[in-house]
Amino acid sequence: MANTTNTTTGTTTQTTADGTRPTFDSYEEFWPYYVAMHSRAATRWVHLTGTLTGLALSAYGLARGRKRYALALPLIGYGTAWPAHWFIEKNNPATFGHPAWSLRGDRQVIATMLAGRDRELGEIAAKWLAENR
């Protein structure tokens, strides 16, 4: 496996048998990449809808004493998000390579969207893609 570093972004790319996978030294370096993996607004909206639906069902179930409803969040959240990557973005979810940072990134993307700043996410994605593709 060979490593190369993009000195502009600080991103290290590890070349593997199945292509390249960026590695990061911090969440701050990871964030623009995460947003770029959600470059299409439709993907971000599917994520938002799936996560909020799963959260609402989990909260409802837990409030009613039905602990199994807690599974709604990961099942509906990931169950809608991952197909959005495959069919809309045509990429693999960042969760596969960076699960903890992806969870944090998902929370940050949703908060940004709920604040009415989805356009900002599109700009971050476009910038990262222009510099790294």
How would you characterize the overall build of this protein?
This protein is mainly alpha-helical and 133 residues long. Helix content is 62%, strand content 11%. The protein has helices spanning 27-36, 41-63, 72-89, 99-114, 118-132; strands spanning 3-6, 11-16, 19-23. It has a 3-stranded antiparallel β-sheet with strand order 1-2-3, with no helix packed on it. The radius of gyration is 16 Å and the shape is elongated.
* Widest sheet: strand ordering: 1-2-3
Strand content: 5-15%
How would you characterize the largest beta sheet? 3 strands, antiparallel
Mean pLDDT: 87
What oligomeric state is this?
single chain
Helix count equals: 5
The percent range for helix content is 55-70%
Using DSSP, what is the number of strands? 3
Globally, the shape reads elongated
Low-pLDDT residue spans: 1-18
Write the element-wise H/E pattern from the N-terminal end onward: EEEHHHHH
The radius of gyration computed from the alpha-carbon positions, rounded to a whole number of angstroms, is: 16 Å
State the distance separating the first and last CA atoms. Answer: 20 Å
Indicate the structural class: mainly alpha
